[in-house]
Inverse folding.
């Protein structure tokens, strides 16, 4: 995602294309199965959210998915994983082509996730925060049987409060540490990050999930940062008060989610490390990608079942990942 540094502090560009795909089509884009394509990169935590939500809700038939490669240049994410380096549905080599089709010479960052209108080839939205909420609410007619309630109405106010702090101090907090260009800005972001992680640890000591008895949007948003913490943020972004594996409640919680269908099976550690360590040449000019950390411990027992809770509530776990959408062998923790 895009951003800039001002006064030593990293400022994320939050002016996204906020067009929404809704049941009533009020922005000109009604929910229609097969019409849109979700473009993601496995390396990106913001895109990883949409991969998880789409899988948990069973939207594979309604909303196709395209995967960008883990690295990109200053211009755009690219489809270098596909034959000929071209997305097989959109027929474009660069995601920027879909942005420019909607807004010629689009001046902001070419970001993932993005949803593209296939008939016109135009990006509809890259508003990652609203995107997953709309998949839960506006796309409900196309959810699989047994799809969980990830944004249940009675808990929305509490979920919104929790994800607000998670975004500011954790999801974006690690970036504010990593891209700070002054000691003071870095230390302020570092302190806020670990104060928030301490708050989350205390919250999760005696409850299995962040809000209520089931997995919600809040857990998905925290998970995609936690799963990258030791592999990237601890060293690359200098978030080094403690590793995730040294924070007992958060480590057990993260393993619990990782071992839940729809979470760990979406995570590509190889692409994640390649993205951060190769693309961020201002932080890692050698572009050397570290071999560690050890990943097998993600599959060790977590003991969180003792806290109760029902991962999918009255719903069921998703089935196996589709063969064409599986994380490549050797790229996960298995």
């Amino acid at each position: 995602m895009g951003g800039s540094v001002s006064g030593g502090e990293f400022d994320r560009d939050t002016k996204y294309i906020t067009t929404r795909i809704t049941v009533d089509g009020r922005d000109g884009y009604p929910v229609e199965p097969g019409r849109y394509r979700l473009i993601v990169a496995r390396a990106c935590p913001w895109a990883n959210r949409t991969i998880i939500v789409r899988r948990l809700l069973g939207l594979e038939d309604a909303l196709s998915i395209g995967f960008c490669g883990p690295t990109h240049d200053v211009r755009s994410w690219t489809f270098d994983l596909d034959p000929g380096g071209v997305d097989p549905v959109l027929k474009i080599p660069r995601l920027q082509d879909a942005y420019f089709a909607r807004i010629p010479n689009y001046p902001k960052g070419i970001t993932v996730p993005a949803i593209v209108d296939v008939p016109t080839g135009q990006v509809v939205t890259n508003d990652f925060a609203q995107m997953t909420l709309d998949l839960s609410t506006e796309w409900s007619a196309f959810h699989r049987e047994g799809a969980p309630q990830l944004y249940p109405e009675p808990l929305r106010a509490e979920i919104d409060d929790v994800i607000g702090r998670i975004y500011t101090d954790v999801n974006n907090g690690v970036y504010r540490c990593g891209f700070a260009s002054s000691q003071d800005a870095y230390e302020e972001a570092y302190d806020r990050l670990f104060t928030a992680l301490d708050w989350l640890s205390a919250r999760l000591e005696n409850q299995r999930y962040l809000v209520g008895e089931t997995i919600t949007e809040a857990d998905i948003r925290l998970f995609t940062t936690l799963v990258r913490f030791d592999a990237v943020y601890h060293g690359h972004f200098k978030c080094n008060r403690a590793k995730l594996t040294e924070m007992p409640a958060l480590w057990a919680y993260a393993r619990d989610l990782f071992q839940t269908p729809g979470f760990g099976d979406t995570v590509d550690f190889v692409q994640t490390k390649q993205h951060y360590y190769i693309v961020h040449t201002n932080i890692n000019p050698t572009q050397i990608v570290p071999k560690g950390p050890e990943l097998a411990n993600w599959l060790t027992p977590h003991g969180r079942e003792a806290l109760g809770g029902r991962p999918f509530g009255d719903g069921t776990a998703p089935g196996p990942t589709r063969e064409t959408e599986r994380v490549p062998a050797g790229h996960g923790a298995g």
